[in-house]
């Protein structure tokens, strides 16, 4: 049997978006937090805690590198761009599909040939899995909020999510409401009796 690299398990999606938003240069810069220290890897939520209990937490360098490689997938302006960026990540992570058997149960098992890129491989595979179930890549997005380019995955039934969080959504609504009020207040029709 030839050695085909190590098997990759998909990263939980919630952990993936958290890594991008906490460690990525673009989200940190937009939030004015470029100089702030990175959070410790075990402060990324319960998915992280569970995962790092099975294998060592990735070093900060790998978290930053992975975040910066993933952010452009969410910021893609078209499906074609998203596909191109994912193809680049598949190559960067040395990901290849293979088939693995457990008794008669034969399933797809992706592997990576790059030991230093296991986090990127796990994250990329998570996005491939996600798109297999929902190929609409417009649902992978970056927040429209002011001073925010955090990434999100739209799971809403209405399929119209545009913000990373309720906080950003509410802030944008408040801003839009104030702007509308200002516009109404300054328009001639509003001041003329
Ligand atoms: Zn946001």
Written account of the structure:
It comes from Microbacterium lushaniae. This is CGNR zinc finger domain-containing protein. This protein is an alpha+beta fold and 193 residues long. It has one domain: Jann2411-like fold. Helix content is 50%, strand content 12%. The chain has 8 helices and 5 strands; from the N terminus they run βαααααββαββαα. The strands form 2 sheets. A 3-stranded antiparallel sheet has the order 1-3-2. It has a two-stranded antiparallel sheet with strand order 4-5. Strand 2 and strand 3 form a beta hairpin. It is globular and about 70 Å long. It starts with 5 loop residues before the first strand and ends with a helix. The model has no long low-confidence stretch (mean pLDDT 92). The chain binds zinc ion (ZN). Zinc ion (ZN) binds next to loops.
Beginning-to-end CA distance, first to last residue: 87 Å
Secondary structure tally, helices: 8
**Name of the CATH architecture:** Orthogonal Bundle
What low-confidence regions span 5 or more consecutive residues with pLDDT below 50? none
Strand content: 5-15%
Structural class: alpha+beta
CATH superfamily: Jann2411-like domain
Mean pLDDT score, rounded?
92
Entry summary:
Helices cover 50% and strands 12% of the residues. With 193 residues, the chain is α+β, with helices and mostly antiparallel strands.
């Amino acid at each position: 049997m030839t050695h085909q690299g190590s098997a990759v398990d998909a990263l939980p999606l919630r952990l993936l978006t958290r890594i991008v938003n906490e460690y990525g240069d673009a989200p940190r810069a937009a939030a004015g937090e470029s100089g702030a220290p990175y959070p410790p890897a075990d402060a990324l939520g319960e998915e992280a805690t569970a995962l790092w209990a099975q294998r060592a937490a990735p070093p900060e360098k790998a978290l930053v590198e992975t975040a910066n490689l993933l952010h452009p997938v969410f910021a893609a302006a078209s499906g074609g761009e998203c596909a191109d960026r994912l193809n680049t990540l598949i190559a960067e992570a040395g990901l290849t599909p293979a088939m693995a058997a457990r008794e008669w149960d034969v399933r797809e098992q992706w592997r990576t040939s790059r030991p230093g890129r296991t986090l990127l491989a796990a994250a990329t595979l998570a996005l491939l899995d996600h798109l297999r179930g929902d190929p609409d890549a417009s649902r992978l997005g970056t927040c429209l909020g002011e001073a925010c380019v955090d990434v999100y995955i739209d799971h809403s039934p209405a399929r119209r999510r545009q913000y990373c969080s309720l906080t950003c959504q509410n802030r944008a609504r408040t801003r839009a409401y104030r702007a509308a009020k200002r516009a109404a207040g300054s328009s001639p029709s509003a001041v003329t009796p």
